[in-house]
UniProtKB/TrEMBL annotation:
<dbReference type="InterPro" id="IPR040911">
    <property type="entry name" value="Exostosin_GT47"/>
</dbReference>
<keyword id="KW-0328">Glycosyltransferase</keyword>
<keyword id="KW-1133">Transmembrane helix</keyword>
<dbReference type="GO" id="GO:0016757">
    <property type="term" value="F:glycosyltransferase activity"/>
</dbReference>
<keyword id="KW-0472">Membrane</keyword>
<feature type="region of interest" description="Disordered">
    <location>
        <begin position="109"/>
        <end position="129"/>
    </location>
</feature>
<dbReference type="GO" id="GO:0000139">
    <property type="term" value="C:Golgi membrane"/>
</dbReference>
<keyword id="KW-0333">Golgi apparatus</keyword>
<feature type="compositionally biased region" description="Low complexity">
    <location>
        <begin position="589"/>
        <end position="600"/>
    </location>
</feature>
<protein>
    <recommendedName>
        <fullName>Exostosin GT47 domain-containing protein</fullName>
    </recommendedName>
</protein>
<keyword id="KW-0808">Transferase</keyword>
<comment type="similarity">
    <text>Belongs to the glycosyltransferase 47 family.</text>
</comment>
<keyword id="KW-0735">Signal-anchor</keyword>
<feature type="transmembrane region" description="Helical">
    <location>
        <begin position="27"/>
        <end position="49"/>
    </location>
</feature>
<dbReference type="InterPro" id="IPR004263">
    <property type="entry name" value="Exostosin"/>
</dbReference>
<dbReference type="Pfam" id="PF03016">
    <property type="entry name" value="Exostosin_GT47"/>
</dbReference>
<feature type="domain" description="Exostosin GT47">
    <location>
        <begin position="148"/>
        <end position="486"/>
    </location>
</feature>
């Protein structure tokens, strides 16, 4: 039967010819019934069947659909658009295709599959911001009466095997010494006496340089904006003692043992509802060791460290370490702990005033030992130049426990009596000594940008010439310069400015006593937490705005850390030669860094 109009005149004419005028009422009835039949067919086709449309497809990622427009090809989808679709979309016809620019989706809708092809997204196709679980946290900043608005931290309640049990087994944290003394006083170590008058009478402790795990964790317990409601959190803290964990197993253990706690932690976190909000990108943790202890390149037992930072979950979280990688984006440098942990602002102010008034009889100084096994080290040349100068004070370090290099009072006394403190690379890029020197008001002299400038961008000014002196290690290695002559060329007024800048930075470079809270000053902990919150907030806003950085080059992450706010474009940099990886051996830099981590442990062994 052909589809014809039920009101067609030709239909009536044919009926009359075949049956005559006496059947006219019957013909009208049949015509009416036929019209009703076709009306019902069309209604069922366009309205009932048309209810199954592309927006409800279970095979499509809802997040993707909300981020971009959808093109539906009529041939591939036999169901026309229904009225509900038309109410919630702008429909256009272009080259025989229906272009549907959808609005945000309803939740819990499960439609059948449809063939889709993405086009460039626009504002009309973005996901509704209110559908994101973290919107409540972002909105807390709008409450001006809430001093914690935008600053709340949620802390995971980890099983004790990830933290407290390690402290109970503190004798296992170092293969060479009883580490328990360093976990005392909330991680600050034993209190030091001030027999020589080098320190203040209070706030000074024999703190281990790798104790940040427990210091930071205890400081977090005193954070004024903790919340038990994770939906309010600007960031989520994971109190895993990652540094203590790996310290137990670095020597004489296979990779299975070294990786066990990290894998266990990831498994625990991924089962938590908080993890699913951003896949862990709003999570952060602290490891008081250098990054190379967590970047094992293979599963060979002879390779160094564990692979925590190479795990997919580890790459999503932000790890705060005392030395970060210039070529990776998931770790961030925070200061080594010094010996000074004030409980009050007044203790900081008193110390700063004292450092300003000191007479400094030495132009420059160096505390450290040579590295004869490292052909790239410039320590030997620095020691030689210091020995030859009448303006340099040298504290030569060795493996002997009697060395004054291992005496906090001897080190701090030398730093306090010097204008400049030389800070070449240690066994790795960084040294605790740099922070001890700045605490003493001594202007640091760096020889590699990764020793400070690209490391501690949260805590140090980006304008490095405002507080330090940079001398390329290449010039020292080639014996092209005299350190003494270069430092003597700096005008006295400039020296005074540099020293004042260093002294003014002291609060943000130290960790306050975890058992108390500074009244107005922000210490290294506060600066780091603020930076993490800012980072997570930017990530969340990027998600809402559907902002992507497709051209981001992770291997150049050290460059991005130097960019000003809002900048995204990279250019050639004077420090490029310091961070170039050999083209023929792409892993050489990582391997040498792992070797440096090994050497660091060997030298630590001699210091215990």
């Amino acid at each position: 039967m052909r589809r014809r109009s039920p009101t067609s005149q030709s239909f009536d004419d044919s009926m009359e010819k075949g049956q005559g005028k006496n059947h006219h009422p019957r013909v009208c009835l049949l015509a009416s019934l036929s019209g009703l039949f076709w009306f019902l067919v069309l209604y069922f086709h366009f309205v009932i069947l048309g209810g199954n449309h592309v927006h409800d497809s279970p095979n499509l990622d809802p997040l993707s659909l909300n981020k971009q427009s959808i093109i539906i090809t009529p041939q591939s989808n036999p169901n026309p658009l229904n009225r509900a679709t038309i109410r919630n979309a702008k429909v256009e016809r272009d080259n025989n295709e229906l272009v549907v620019k959808s609005k945000p989706l309803e939740k819990n809708v499960q439609p059948p599959p449809a063939v889709v092809r993405p086009v460039i997204s626009d504002n009309s196709s973005r996901r509704d911001p209110e559908s994101y679980s973290f919107m409540r946290a972002l909105r807390t900043v709008e409450n001006k009466s809430d001093p914690c608005g935008g600053r709340y931290i949620y802390v995971h309640d980890l099983p004790p095997r990830f933290n407290e049990d390690m402290l109970k087994e503190c004798r296992t944290l170092s293969p060479w010494t009883n580490f328990c003394k360093f976990t005392a006083n909330a991680g600050l170590g034993p209190q030091m006496e001030n027999a020589e008058g080098v320190f203040s009478n209070t706030g000074w402790y024999a703190t281990n340089q790798f104790a940040v795990d427990v210091i930071f964790g205890n400081r977090m317990k005193q954070y004024e904006c903790l919340t038990n409601d994770s939906s309010l959190a600007a960031a989520i803290f994971v109190p895993f003692y990652a540094g203590f964990d790996i310290a137990r197993y670095l020597w004489g253990y296979n990779v299975t043992t070294r990786d066990a706690a990290s894998l266990d932690l990831v498994d625990w976190l991924q089962k938590r509802p908080e993890w699913n909000i951003m896949g862990g990108k709003d999570h952060f943790l602290v490891a008081g060791r250098i990054t190379w202890d967590f970047r094992r390149l293979s599963d060979s037992d002879s390779d160094w460290g564990n692979k925590f930072l190479f795990l997919p979950a580890g790459r999503n979280m932000s790890m705060l370490v005392v030395e970060s990688s210039p070529w990776n984006a998931n770790d961030f440098g925070i200061p080594y702990p010094t010996y000074f942990h004030p409980a009050k602002d007044a203790e900081v102010f008193t110390w700063q005033d004292r450092m300003r008034k000191l007479e400094r009889k030495w132009l420059f100084c160096f505390a450290g030992g040579p590295r004869p096994g490292d052909p790239k080290s410039i320590r030997g040349q620095i020691i030689d130049q210091c020995k030859e100068s009448k303006s340099c004070k040298l504290l030569k370090c060795g493996q002997s426990r009697e060395s004054k290099c291992h005496s906090p009072s001897s080190i701090m006394k030398m730093f306090q009596s010097s204008l400049f403190c030389l800070q070449p690379q240690g066994d790795s890029y960084t040294r605790r000594s740099a922070f001890d020197a700045m605490l003493a008001g001594c202007i640091p002299v760096f020889f590699h940008p990764a020793s400070a400038y690209t490391q501690y961008t949260w805590h140090l000014p980006k304008n490095y010439s405002a507080y330090s002196v940079f001398i390329s290690e290449n010039d020292v290695r080639k014996k092209n310069i005299s350190i003494e002559e270069m430092l003597n060329q700096i005008p006295p007024e400039k020296v005074k400015e540099l020293r004042e800048a260093v002294i003014s930075m002291i609060p943000r470079l130290i960790y306050a006593d975890p058992r108390s809270k500074l009244e107005t000053l922000k210490d290294a902990f506060d600066v780091a937490v603020d930076a993490v919150i800012n980072r997570v907030t930017r990530l969340r806003k990027d998600i809402i705005e559907d902002r992507k950085y497709d051209n981001y080059i992770e291997e150049l992450s050290w460059k991005y850390s130097l960019l000003d706010e809002g900048q995204t474009e990279l250019a050639a940099h004077e420090w490029d030669p310091f961070f170039e990886k050999p083209k023929d051996r792409s892993a050489e830099s990582d391997n040498s860094s792992a070797e440096a981590a090994k050497n660091s442990w060997k030298n630590e062994q001699g210091q215990q």
